[in-house]
Amino acid sequence: MPIDDNNDGAGDDALALYVHWPFCLSRCPYCDFNAHVRETIDQTRWRDALLTELAYWADQTPGRALTSIFFGGGTPSLMDPATVGAVINSAAKHWSFADDIEITLEANPTSIEAAKFADLKAAGVNRVSIGVQALDNDALKFLGRGHDRDQALAALKLAEKTFSRFSFDLIYARPGQTSGSWSKELQEALGLAGDHLSLYQLTIEKGTPFYAEERAGEFVLPEEDNAAELFNVTQEICDRHGLPAYEISNHARPGSECRHNITYWQGGDYVGAGPGAHGRLTINNTVYATEQIPGPENWLEEVEASGHATRNRAAIDAAARVEEIFMMGLRLTSGLSRDVFWERTGMELEDALEPRRLRPLLTADYLILDNRGLRATAEGRLRLNAILSTLLT
Ligand SMILES: C[S@@+](CC[C@H](N)C(=O)[O-])C[C@H]1O[C@@H](n2cnc3c(N)ncnc32)[C@H](O)[C@@H]1O
Ligand code: SF4
Question: How far is residue 32's CA from residue 22's CA, in Å, rounded to a whole number?
């Protein structure tokens, strides 16, 4: 699907749905997502609660058309396919579906999860995003993954056979990784890829085991210059193979960008259901940020007691909205179009930008402002956080 200024061609009533499944078989030492390990999960109770929360959100968003559904986690491939099917069927009752609705599920590549692909497809999933993370057994061990290279390759093969679209994730800029070894791994990955790849530089998140290990000197991340070189090599190789970056970490064949993520980056509306899920909803011309209770058991009990487990629901004021639209839109290679900016904020780009902050960034070739809108150059995307703080603070 081409990136389109009207946020995916489905009209102003377009809506995306995110469903969070918070469970994993084990915790990976780098990960700070809302993910928990539990001995047993009562799938029936969880299904009922997810359906209850969907009904609550549907009441708030009548007459809207869903353009995408994304099951994220945690590890949604641990969901019973019948639970996934029940969520999709219930969504279809609450909202209308765009003809080409994208329904993605994040999957880990263990054999148990890959064995569910056919049932997930039958349940309505039409795209999987697989957490391969590395194609090298030593790296997979370092990352604490529960799968090995052979399982990853088998899961990719099965995904290709089962779904018309699939993506996978790799984590690079790992300790000891050189541009030579990463180029080799990436070229192999491109040979295995479908229409989409997510390539994340390893980040060390506070509170994770990797945070303590790195501080204790147990491993050393690549220096900043080396990480920048790895990023540049990534862009070059992916360009050459026809999967250019459309966002900092996301690459796709033109037309196969992940519709769901584009909704986020273009500031579109999305419902967030499940523990810790975030949402953005425009109701009577006010944009609300919503956030569900993150703890799985607390979320479940609150939904059962009250019909939803919303922890926060706050109107976003105009200044904060402009800021978030810049922060999200500049992640996209195509940047922020004038139309999208107008649609989301009711302002012209120039009216929201302070010339004394913008000018040096244009002069340094980090940003481009033209008839299409505002976008970061490749050099700019490499230092986007610094650029945003110059532009916005
Ligand atoms: C919700 S997570 C994982 C989904 C799925 N449970 C899995 O492990 O494959 C989505 C992706 O974020 C990336 N990720 C998570 N933590 C990261 C970190 N600290 N640094 C870089 N990438 C990270 C991983 O590539 C992961 O596949
Ligand atoms: S990376 Fe995936 S499997 Fe690992 S803890 Fe995070 S969500 Fe769970």
Answer: 12
Q: Considering the domain boundaries, does residue 183 fall inside one? A: yes
Domain count, the chain: 2
Cβ atoms within 10 Å, residue 249 = 17
- Give the whole-angstrom CA distance, residue 365 versus residue 376: 8
Identify the domain containing residue 340 by its residue range: 319-392
Judge if pTM exceeds 0.85.
yes
Spatial contact of 274 and 310, defined as CB atoms under 8 Å apart: no
Q: What is the mean pLDDT of each run of 10 residues along the chain (393 residues)?
A: 41 87 97 96 97 98 96 96 98 96 96 89 98 97 96 96 97 96 98 97 97 97 91 96 97 97 96 98 95 98 98 96 96 96 95 95 97 95 94 87
Domain CATH for 385? 1.10.10.920
- What residues does ligand 1 touch, defined as CB less than 6 Å away? 24, 30-31, 33, 72-73, 75, 106, 108, 131, 133, 169, 171, 200, 202-203, 205
CA atoms 178, 180, 185, 190: torsion sign: positive
Choosing from 265, 290, 305, the residue where a domain stops is 265
Q: Which residue matches tokens 């607390």?
A: 298
Cα(11) to ligand 1 centroid in Å equals 32
Classified as helix, coil or strand, 31 is: coil
For ligand 2, atom 3, the nearest C-alpha belongs to 24
